[in-house]
Here is the input.
Amino acid sequence: MKNILKIKGTDDTPFIVLTKNSLNIQGRSINTDKKFFENILEKIDNVDKTSEFILSIELDYISTLTSHYLLKIIRKVEKLNSPKIKWFYEEGDDFIYEDGIDLQDSIGIKFEFIENSL
Here is the structure.
């Protein structure tokens, strides 16, 4: 499947892969560059709006700016056809799990919470 957007992860930014049916966000996000997230939001306009879309989020650290933009991304995804959101967190990482709960409570879609064993 052809990528619409692929961004290699760094120590500060997550690995991003956007295809016509999915967006995967993995790694650590202590990024403070709004342009990083604005680029992702822009590219979501190019996804297939007629088939199921899966947003997978697997972050081990989420900055305040990241939380703000994750909410924007999720709100945009929720307008797509049959969106599913998968929220991954490490076993015992209550902070990341609670971040997912908080974001879920802010929108109208239930997340699938997936605990990764250490």
